[in-house]
Amino acid sequence: MPEGHTIHRLARRHHALFAGAPVAASSPQGRFAAGAAAIDGRVLEGADAYGKHLFYRFGDDVLHVHLGLIGRFPSYIRDVPEPTPATRLVISNGSAAAHLSGPMTCRVITTDEAAAVTAALGPDPLRSRGGRREFAAALGRRRAPIAAVLLDQAVIAGIGNVYRSEILFLCGIHPTTPARNLSDDRGDCLWRTAGAQLRLGLRLGRIVTVRLGDVGARRRGDLDEDERRYVYHRDGLPCHRCGSIVRRGDIGARSAWWCPGCQPE
DNA sequence: TCTTTATGGTGAG
DNA sequence: TCACCCTAAAGAT
After folding, report:
1. Which of A5, A81, A173, A222 sits 20 to 30 Å CA-CA off A192?
2. pLDDT tens digits for range A86-117
């Protein structure tokens, strides 16, 4: 279940495992048989991530994958399991394999088409240190609640439902605040916090947003599930920082969580 | 053995 | 705003 950090991590791992050599590609499920045939035996030049999108370059052809909500793309170095009947795509070489299941998007496109995909996305904090102004400008154009705007991939690429609530908590911003009402400082805080949290998530391989001091822990490995985040899925529980009861509400057709003490309206 | 849920996104109305 | 797509694991019965 991926936000941007997961996708970038996958791109790095797949690049390390497969780039620079021919790969075998097949579709046990059958639904991607033609696409797999188009890249089978070809040299993978590289794997990249932009926001929540994955791109695998094979000359002028690009394998474009988006995992959606339920997609997975685990890889194996040894003890490669049998693909399940739902495995859409297997990529392998002599020593490793990756099994794709449940993707929202899996298709072979041209480099121009791939460029059009990324052009429609907002800046990705994991790729660009120069996206802050573009992000700030987009906020200024929107009157929708900031919690809804943070999920719009045309505004900022890679944020999902966990990070949107956690980032708003960390910046002390109430989720229903209209985006264009935010000060420049608060917009800066959102951009910097998004980048810092995505980079941390990329490094850890999981989303951990709490400062250890706020939960009285020494190491991140000591944290229980409930202690890794400030608000996400914590409605009814006391805030790690101020003790107020965390609330949940539907914002932008999905649940958002916030602390009424730390994020006043 | 069910039903539910999930860190996402699209297209129709 | 809603139905819908895709899969797997967790939770309920």
Report:
1. A222
2. 999 999 998 999 999 999 999 999 999 999 99
